[in-house]
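Appendix B. Extra example for self-study. Work through it before the problem class; the solution is given directly after the inputs so you can check yourself.
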Amino acid sequence: MSFAFYVVAALTLAGGLAAVLLKNLVHCALALTVAFAGLALLFLQLDAQFVGFVQILVYIGAVAILVVFAILLTRGSETPKSSEIFSRTWLAGLVVAAAVFAVLGWAVLQAAPGLPYATVAPMVTVQEIGAALMGRYVLPLEIVALLLTAALIGAVIVAMHEKEGAR
Amino acid sequence: MNPLAGYLLVAALLFAIGLAGALTRRNAILVLIGIELMLNAANLNLIAFWRYGSHPEALTGMMFAIFSIAVAAAEAAVGLGLVISIHRHTRTTDLDQINRMKG
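Solution. Structure tokens for the complete assembly:
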């Protein structure tokens, strides 16, 4: 494991922790952006350049901005009182999350000796990804295009302002 | 340590952080942030298995991650639209106060 991996992993996890722990929602969105950037760096370390840059474009460029818009539109930028951050059932949620991590970590550590080592980095060009998207994966691509259109229209209709007495 | 195990452990920890956020926070937007973190942790698993798997040239894991990113973007748009709509109806995004389904 390289030194860079530990640095980027620590950055990502710190960003994720801050995103769910901070009090002010705008700070949470900023921490979320840090976590997304760390994940993009992890993807780049894994020789998946295309996915790394897609992560930056889609998550930092779109999803994080969308979250900030939602926070500002719902007036969530006001800092809540300390007693109002976590829900009444926070202890149960924490126990469930810890149990899930225990199971996942146990499974990974059990399987760790048998996991494969890859010494040669796979060289994948964007041209190959495009050819695969247009060839073997063209049907999922079309379905995702339809899904994105439906989600776009649905989000607009759901969030559209209803005039008084219009319905 | 095995490099693949390191990535898988980071992904597991990130998933647990996202799950804890989604289950414990009161604000609906924070719940969506937790869900986004969980989806990203799953993507990290897919890419790590693609990189260290036996046939990276088949691009299976990478394609799965790309489609997963697209679906996650659609989910974020619809989810945040719903939060804005709920806020317009009830003037709150506090999930402990949203306890009825009547519009």
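Self-check: Chain A touches chain B through 86 residues (CB under 8 Å). If your reasoning did not lead you there, revisit section 3.
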